[in-house]
Design brief:
With 145 residues, the protein is mainly α. The protein is built from 6 helices and 2 strands, in the order ααααββαα.
């Protein structure tokens, strides 16, 4: 029986990194009264004005049902506005949301810089390219022979 060696496992190292990053993000965003999912939503809505609910769900890695709760909280706090109805609904940041995002984005960038502090520019690019290749390998169907 084959067993994963946690000392050399890339998957385990990714999980450790993800957990440490999530904890650091939770802590820095708590001061801004945001969750990681709320912050991620604001970033996506900001970079893609008019984003649909379904696209947001995919981008934040939550179910479409969870997106409704997420959006409800953001709307109640006046961080986003929803224009249209049903499939025609489009999501936009409010001025309050844009201001909160600016603060949150700076805090998140600081955490990311801390995480990557030991890597020079070329190693950062290699890491990004490698992680993207790994994600693609797991999400792209294999080619038929």
């Amino acid at each position: 029986m084959s067993q994963v060696d946690v000392d050399t496992s890339i998957g385990y190292a990714l999980k450790r990194t993800t957990s440490a990053l999530r904890a650091a993000l939770d802590e820095c965003l708590r001061d801004l009264e945001l969750t990681v999912s709320q912050y991620s939503s604001l970033e996506l809505i900001s970079s893609r004005p008019g984003l649909s609910n379904a696209d947001l769900a995919r981008g934040v890695f939550v179910s479409r049902q969870a997106t409704h709760q997420l959006l409800g909280g953001l709307r109640r706090r006046n961080l986003i506005e929803v224009i249209g109805e049903g499939r025609e609904q489009k999501l936009l940041l409010t001025a309050v949301g844009a201001s909160r995002l600016e603060e949150a984005s700076a805090a998140v960038a600081s955490i990311e810089e801390q995480m990557l502090g030991g890597l020079d520019r070329s190693r950062r690019k290699l890491l990004l390219d490698s992680l993207n290749a790994c994600a693609s390998a797991l999400t792209t169907p294999p080619e038929a022979d």
